[in-house]
Structure formats: C-alpha cells, structure tokens
Design brief:
By secondary structure, this protein is an alpha/beta fold. Helix content is 33%, strand content 17%. Strand 9, helix 8 and strand 10 form a beta-alpha-beta unit. The longest helix is centred in the last third of the chain and has 25 residues.
Length: 514
C-alpha cells in the first residue's frame, strides 16, 4: 500500500510500509500515475494532510477487497460540482447517502483510494487534468460503466471533527465536465434549466464548453485487470427461490423443472400463487405429486399484486441467499453454480443477472459486470440479511417502479447492486394469466391524465434531488412534445404543467397512503 498525503493540490509526503517514498514532482495528478508505475501491485491511497491521523487503516483491506474498486469520501458540506449537475444527470448515483457505502462516480480528493493496476491501465487513455478533484471525477465517470466499482465510503475515516470548506460553484467547470462526459445535448438542457429554475444566464460557460472534446475509454479497457475478491460473502451457501405467479401453470412447472436440474440445488422454493376468483383453489397439483429435490413452500392468496406476493414470500426465507425469480423464465442447469462463482469472484451481495428475450440472448452487447442503476425483481440473487428491513412498497402496486424503488432501498442502506450479463436468464414474457383482471388505477378516470405516471413520480420524489426532478420535468416536456396532439407550444406547455401537477397530487396521495 502507498499513501499519498497532500495539501492544496500538491503532495506533501508519500509513504509505503512506513517508509518515505521519493517523488519527483509536487503535483498530485502527475505523481499519482508516476507512483502507480513505481508500485504496480499496490493500493494507492490519497489523504489530505489534515486527515492523516484519521485514516482508518484497519478498514482498507475490507473496502478495497479486489482491484477494481475506487472509493473516496467528501468532508465538505457540498460536492465539487454544484447541485446543478442534477439538471443534466438523472441517475441514482448523484443523491449520495453519506452515512453508508454508496455507489457513485462523485469522488473527493479529501481521502480515497484506487489500485495501481487500474491507474496504469488508464495511464495513456485519460487526460491528466491539473485539478485533482476534476481528474478523480473524470476517472470514475468514464470507468464506472466499464466495470470499476466506485463508492462514497465513510469507513475510510475513523471519527473526525474535521470539516472542509465548501467548494465554490464553478459553472465553467460544470459545463466543461458535462460536455466531456455526456451527450452534447445535455449542456443545452443544463443552460435551459439554469435559466428556467435559477434565472441564471450561463452563456459564457456554455460557449467555452463547446471547445472541449468528449472523452472516451475503450469498452474492454479494464478487462485486462484480473480481480479476485478477498471478501468472504458465502458462508453457508444455502439458497431459497421466491416465485410470485398468477395463472401461468405451464410456465411455472417448466421453471421448477429447471431448478430441479440445477448442479447447485436450492434449499427451498417459495411459490406465492394468486387467484382473485372467490372460492378458487390452487391449480398447481404438481407441487404435491412431483418428486422435487427441494422443499416447496406454497402460499395461496386471493389478493393480487406483485408487491404483495413478493413480500409474502420474503418473510418465509430462511436461507443465507435468495433468488428472486419470475414464473416465466428459463435457466441453464449450471445457472446457480455459475452465479455463485460470480458472487464469490467479486465479493458481491446483490446481483441482477442479464434477463433477455429468447431471440436476443445471443446478441447481448454488455460483456462485463458493472454497478447498475436497475434492480430486477425477477432475475436477482441477494443476501438475505440485507433485505431483513426492506420490503416492496405497496404504493407502487399495479404501477411502475417497484423494482427500482426496492433497489434504491438496498442502496440507501449501503447494499450495492451489480449487473452481471453472465450467466444469463431467458425471459419468455408469457401472456397474462387467463383469470387476471385489469386493475383500475385511482387516476384512470381523471379528466386530466397525470404525466408522468404517479408511481413514476413517486419514485422520483423519493430518490431524486430537487435539481434532478426539475431536469426530468424539462426532459419529459421535450420528449412528449412530438408525440402528443397539441402542437401549439404555449398550449402544450400550459397543459403539460397541469398534467405534471396532477401527477404530483396522486404521487403524494400514494406516499401518504403507505
């Protein structure tokens, strides 16, 4: 391990195994890569001089348990980029929960670390900005989608009362960053949103940003970095499978047969069968008549809804791991065995696996694991202890967003979600069960139809920053203009605001009902 102590964007001291390391330049940026070349097998840690006595050495091995992890922690009351970045970035990686390990490309020069092998891989591929904070953000933003796991990590520090000064908002840096790391349209949306919501006319930052080129990294760049996690996440290795189902007898039976053929067998399969018909009984005669190599817990309910069904199943879990599955998926006999190899290799506790239609399964573009903004309720394996205080929010029942909300509950408690394209799952997308009735939503008969859907609005209210919500409103305005009937822009704007307010109304009713 090499620790770089710095102050005012310049190196003050470098140490490795308690001994001082000689460095040729005082610039943080230049020396970061130079030291990585000198110590290619080491973890490189940067630490502001004021935090030297607060660096939590005992946690470093646990935090950086494999090579492709970048983590830092910010002790200012704001971030390097102003909150206005939310006008151009609607992802979940911005609204950081400071008290837990949280996935984000928002990095800090205050304290953090990255493995030298990753830096050496990036050395000739990334522009070495003189501003250390800007460089760290650029590395994380570019490499996170390519398989670098990036976190805001409070456990880098032991308890400290040190508070760093607030960062000064710099719209020139903000526009430059957006231009270099996003589609060019986002700088114009940022300009519009700053004017609409903050009455700021950022013409010069917009103009000067046009002279910067977009930054890229090769998609497979980080795949040369071999990593094997030192974190032991599998102890018992037992697994339960939960399957909510409604009117899909044949599909469920086929999936149970897939589970029965697994080289890594589950301990329990928990089936929640829904049938709203009064007096109806289970149609799954094969549960009792079949000779299954696992125990099947069968729950029958007249109450429909995926959120309710999954919550009923989750309370029945008694294994270390749970495979959250749909009733219309198919898996290869080696799926679970290969899935746990992925979990072991990267030290993961929540994984959403690639789930594809049959005709798309052989044409996947994603080849590597990365931190996902999604969570799949029908294609994920999670550690049971991490979901003890998590449940599906009934406010999303029969709408959209329950999967995303569940994933956010996990992240907000410090449990990251990783997407793995392999092993993959075939999603048959079976037709709706014959006895299923279309649910009539409370706002279905409104004269003014809410836009967006109130459940989508609820998710945004719960998880986006204020700037992200406003940015989403602007983006949706342009997105729907070309597909709606009102072509007069003034009338459309007026009508859109009414629909937006109606969506807010219903979203707040859903929130207060939960």
């Amino acid at each position: 391990m090499v620790i770089i102590y710095h102050q005012n964007n310049k190196i003050v001291e470098v140490s490795s195994k308690g001994e001082n390391v000689v460095f040729s330049e005082k610039s943080m940026t230049s020396n970061l890569f130079q030291i990585a070349e000198q110590y290619p097998d080491s973890l490189i840690v940067w630490c502001h001089l004021d935090l030297k006595s607060n660096l939590n050495y005992t946690k470093l091995e646990e935090i950086f348990h494999h090579k492709k992890i970048m983590a830092s922690y910010n002790l200012s009351s704001n971030s390097f980029f102003s909150e206005a970045i939310g006008y151009s970035d609607l992802s979940l990686f911005l609204n950081i929960k400071k008290g837990v390990s949280y996935p984000t490309w928002i990095m800090s020069s205050h304290i953090g670390g990255i493995h030298a092998e990753v830096l050496n891989t990036l050395n000739n591929q990334i522009y070495k900005d003189s501003n250390f904070d800007y460089l760290l953000h650029s590395i994380a933003k570019l490499a996170m989608p390519l398989g670098l796991y990036c976190y805001s990590e409070p456990s880098l520090l032991e308890k400290t009362d040190v508070i760093f000064p607030k960062f000064k908002n710099d719209n020139f840096l903000l526009f430059r960053f957006i231009k270099q790391h996003y589609k060019v349209s986002w700088i114009f949306l940022l300009f519009i949103n700053l004017f609409l919501y903050e009455r700021k006319f950022a013409l010069l930052p917009l103009f000067f940003s046009l002279f910067y080129s977009k930054r890229y990294l090769k998609d497979d760049l980080l795949q040369v970095v071999e990593n094997q996690s030192q974190k032991k996440v599998i102890v018992e290795g037992t697994l339960d499978v939960i399957i909510p189902t409604i009117g899909r007898k044949k599909y469920l039976y086929d999936f149970l047969k897939d589970l029965a053929l697994q080289t890594y067998l589950p301990k329990n399969v928990i089936i929640v069968e829904q049938n709203p018909a009064t007096g109806s009984v289970s149609e799954f005669d094969f549960i009792e008549s079949g000779n299954w190599p696992f125990y099947i817990k069968h729950i029958f309910t007249h109450k429909t809804g995926a959120c309710n069904a999954r919550n009923l199943a989750l309370v029945e879990i008694d294994s270390e791991w749970v495979f959250m599955a749909d009733d219309d998926i198919r898996i290869d006999k080696n799926f679970l065995e290969e899935a746990f190899e992925v979990i072991k290799k990267d030290g993961l506790e929540q994984v959403t696996f690639g789930c594809y239609a049959p005709d798309y399964a052989e044409n996947k573009k994603i080849k590597f694991r990365f931190q996902s903004s999604n969570f799949g309720s029908g294609c994920s394996i999670v550690k049971s202890k991490n979901i003890e205080s998590v449940s599906y929010n009934a406010s999303f029942e029969f709408g959209y967003g329950e999967d995303s909300d569940y994933g956010m509950q996990l992240r907000n408690q410090g449990s990251d979600v990783i997407f793995s394209p392999k092993p993959d799952i075939i999603h048959l997308k079976a037709p709706i069960g014959g006895f299923r009735e279309k649910h009539i939503l409370a706002w279905s008969n409104d004269l003014i139809q809410p836009k967006p859907s109130p459940t989508v609005m609820l998710y945004n209210l719960l998880n986006l920053t204020k700037q992200q919500l406003k940015g989403y409103k602007t983006t949706l305005f342009f997105k729907f203009y070309s597909v709606q009937k009102i072509k007069n822009p003034i009338r459309y704007y007026s009508n859109y605001n009414i629909q937006w307010d109606r969506s807010l109304y219903w979203a707040n009713k859903l929130y207060n009902k939960k």
